[in-house]
Predict the structure.
Amino acid sequence: MALSKLKKFATAYKEEIICNPTFATEVECGLKCVSYLISGRFNNSTLVSEFIFGSTQLLSLCHDFVLKNALQIQHAVDITVLKLQSFLNIIEYLQIFFEYGGLTLAKERGKWIVVTVVQLIKAVIKLLLLLKYKQGIQKRFPVFSLDRKKIQIDFLSNGKFGNQNGGHIQEQLDNYHNSINFAKCNVLKSGRIMRKLECSPERTKRTWQLPKKTSLYKHLVETRLNVPPTKLNEMQTFSEIVYIVKPLAHLGAMRLFGQLSWYPFMISLSMDLFNIAVLKSTENRLNRTEVNELYIRKSHLLLYLLKSPMFDNHTKDKLVSILRTASNNIPVFGRLLVPFIDYLPTYQKVYFHVH
């Protein structure tokens, strides 16, 4: 009986997600807010917070899976590659929860055992994707999230459910199609729409039909998903291997020199800089997704300010001073900074212990 009710609830929830994709985003945002609010409020609150946050990320992955099926999105990559990439996403989502669970159960020893095992699994999967399946530059989250607002507009235009918001939705649809869907067309003064010559398909495949106002977001997602990864040369491949094994090298250096030593910090930073320098030298050959990944890696260099021993010796006092000044001088918002300031040392230990 209980199983039957659970199945009915799951079916109804799935239908609600398909009919109203933005509802999925609202659910995820609500759960994430809960995870932020309970941090530091009681014993083991960090563990509970990370469980809720990781579960929310997994729920987001499930929502995207449901919506991809509804859109009937086709993947060009091998099913094994898709499974490995999805597994990487799951590990990334739950990594901090596992690590903090190890800390709770077996203190520091348990934490570092979990950290090492997790980083080893991630490295093996990424090396498989790089060397065996030729997937090019490895991303932290290989499976990207869908844009729920665009999906909702796409579903509306495709007649999947009724117009629930009157003219506002229709206005969105008109703007959406005019700005994106008909980018390959010219609109004459008479109002007639004509396809641009350079955007016409091959002569043998022409149907002389205008682009349809349906499944546009599906086309955009498939275009992004099915862009082949850039073929890396030997130096790029070597630099990517260096980037993948960097966390393991950092852990090994911490084992040898201690957690507060500058040697692990400098080894990790050097490996990051080497990888970025090699990829940047051939940036013009990378596709858009890979260029975005390179930009993310560059921006992540700033996070070294929050990693030990830089944080303990230089950044911590300055950052706390700035935050306390802001909390004392900014009305309302300043009061929200107080719990964050108190939680900052724990936050740093949880999220920035591995480079």
Observations:
- Residues 231-355 form one domain.
- The mean pLDDT is 79.
